[in-house]
Design goal:
The chain contains eleven helices and five strands, in the order ααβαβααβαββααααα. It is α+β, with helices and mostly antiparallel strands and 255 residues long. The protein is elongated, with a radius of gyration of 18 Å.
């Protein structure tokens, strides 16, 4: 229920056009609800050096850590930023390569309550712009691994909604894209966590037809996967945000 509640609140925030300060407070609440220490959203331009690429940042880290990060110009050597500029899939901070200066960032971050564990999810929904949503925790490593394995699909969906809520320039405008009735139905059921087979049984469609409708919907929305497509469609109004209210949890599982 925590992830469902978080997704619902983020969807409402997208259409309420919250300011950055309000979004930070919302992310603090969501971090507590889902069991992480911090949530951070950054946007940067592709194919630019780290010092010129950072466009916006909405983070729940302490003001002291934010000030120190920029005072020390950690953005120039932060491996999360460096790797995140080209990453296509979620990555754990522990799996990154750290030079001696970069390793100092982690030690410094722990002093300011960032947490020893981190997971970053890259979001690529706009040309020449990459967003990175990060979740941190200070849980023991085995608990962190269990948390990731259990909740990765939900975290990916939340990341898309966080990216939309944090997007500068006000509310999202509805896309000109129109889904067919069947594409919308299949995507809604996918957003409720149903598999291809389950969607076929519900809508009286073959497995192949369900796959075709979902693939077509994903391509129309220019999304990488179903998690991305479902969250993006809800966030931009292609499908009604109320569809999540009919499901016990908003996760889109791997199909």
């Amino acid at each position: 229920m925590a992830f469902y509640s978080a997704a619902k609140r983020l969807t409402e925030a997208i259409f309420d056009d919250l300011g950055s300060a309000d979004i930070v407070e919302l992310l603090k609440d969501i971090a507590f609800e889902i069991g992480v220490w911090h949530i951070a959203h950054i946007r940067f331009a592709k194919e630019k050096s780290p010092d010129t690429s950072l466009l916006t940042a909405v983070v729940t880290y302490s003001r002291e850590w934010q000030a120190r990060y920029f005072l020390k110009q950690y953005v120039l050597i932060d491996p999360v930023i460096t790797f995140g500029q080209t990453a296509l899939a979620p990555f754990d901070w522990q799996d990154l390569s750290y030079s001696e200066p970069a390793a100092a960032i982690l030690a410094d971050a722990e002093k300011f309550g960032v947490g020893r564990n981190g997971l970053s999810i890259p979001i690529r929904t706009r040309p020449n712009v990459i967003s990175l949503v990060s979740f941190t925790s200070d849980a023991p490593r085995n608990e962190w691994e269990e948390f990731k394995a259990r909740n990765l699909a939900d975290l990916q969906l939340l990341s898309l909604l966080i990216d939309s809520a944090a997007r500068s320039g006000g509310k999202l405008r509805p896309l000109s894209t129109t889904l067919s009735r069947r594409e919308e139905q299949c995507l809604i059921w996918a957003a409720r966590g149903k598999t291809y087979h389950e969607i076929g049984e519900i809508l009286d469609l073959t497995f192949g037809s369900v796959k075709t409708y979902l693939d077509t919907a994903r391509h129309k929305l220019r999304c990488m996967n179903l998690t991305h497509a479902a969250a993006f469609a809800v966030a931009t109004g292609v499908i009604p945000p109320t569809v999540l209210q009919m499901s016990e949890r908003p996760a889109v599982h791997q199909l």
